[in-house]
Amino acid sequence: MSLFKNMLIALSLVVSAAAVTAPAASAQGTTVVMIDEGRILSDSKAGKDIQTKLKNLETQMKNELEPTRATLETDGKALQAKVEGKTREAVAADTALVSQLTAYQTRANAFAQKRQTVSQEFQLTERAALIEFNKAIEPVLMDVVKEKNAQVVMSKSQVIYSTDAIDVSALVISKLDAKTPTIAVTRQRAPAQPAQ
Q1: What are the two backbone dihedrals, phi and then psi, of residue 33, each rounded to the nearest 5 degrees?
Q2: What sections of 37-186 are H helices per DSSP?
Q3: pLDDT, tens only, 14-71
Q4: Rounded to whole angstroms, how far apart are CA atoms 89 and 107?
Q5: Across 167-192, average pLDDT
Q6: Quick one: which H or E segment has residue 191?
Q7: How many helices (H) and strands (E) does the chain have?
Q8: Beta 152-155 vs 32-35: how paired, if at all?
Q9: Is the torsion defined by CA of 187, 190, 192, 193 positive or negative?
Q10: What mean pLDDT, rounded, does the chain reach?
Q11: How far is CA 87 from CA 53, 58, 91, 93, 98, in A?
């Protein structure tokens, strides 16, 4: 799932929570407002800030892994050349080669574990940033609800048809930009894995 889709799902939870607190729009005179979570995330200063910081962190994480990946690739090709044309018995009889292959496999397994940990840390970081974004949006959304005297907030992604007049996304974005233009994005660390 893409970074943007994950962020939209998390943001929609905030909207759902706000909508649950409002009664159904069955009575005449009920004020309904709608927000476009994707637009708020992509157009607000805080949303852009999160996306930039997460992209930078993703690049940093890839750069951390690159030297080991490149070394493993080079060593793997060298070992492949040494093994090429030999039978299993011939490889097994060459204790130095067996030792090199075993060491290579150990390093490759450690790298795979490190890559998995880095991926998990990125997901944890993304989730933590979205929690902070949701915390920043909630009071802004409630201000807009009060300002518009709305009883129902709907997500544009859940509406089949609406007029642009009830879309308050621009108002939410302007208030969010004024109140919270940036969101702290701190790299989260994965819990230590038990030794196997």
Answers
A1: -120, 160
A2: 37-43, 45-83, 88-93, 95-148, 169-179
A3: 455 444 444 444 446 789 999 999 999 999 999 999 999 999 999 999 999 999 999 9
A4: 24
A5: 94
A6: none
A7: 6, 2
A8: parallel
A9: negative
A10: 87
A11: 51, 43, 6, 10, 13
Amino acid at 34: M
Bridge partners for 155 per DSSP: 35
Strand partners, 154: 34
Domains of the chain with bracketed CATH: 3-179 (3.30.910.20)
- Is 71:34 a contact under the CB 8 Å cutoff? no
Contact 144, 33 (CB under 8 A): yes
Poorest-pLDDT segment among 10-19, 31-40, 116-125, 186-195: 10-19
Distance, C-alpha 160 to centroid of its chain: 28
| Count of CB atoms situated within 10 Å of the CB of 57 | 18
What pTM did the predictor assign? 0.76
CA separation for the pair 6, 127 (Å, rounded): 8
Distances (CA, A) of 117 to 66, 121, 124, 192: 15, 6, 10, 9
Closest CA to 103 of 78, 84, 85: 78
What is the model's pLDDT at position 12?
55
The identity of residue 122, as a single letter, is F
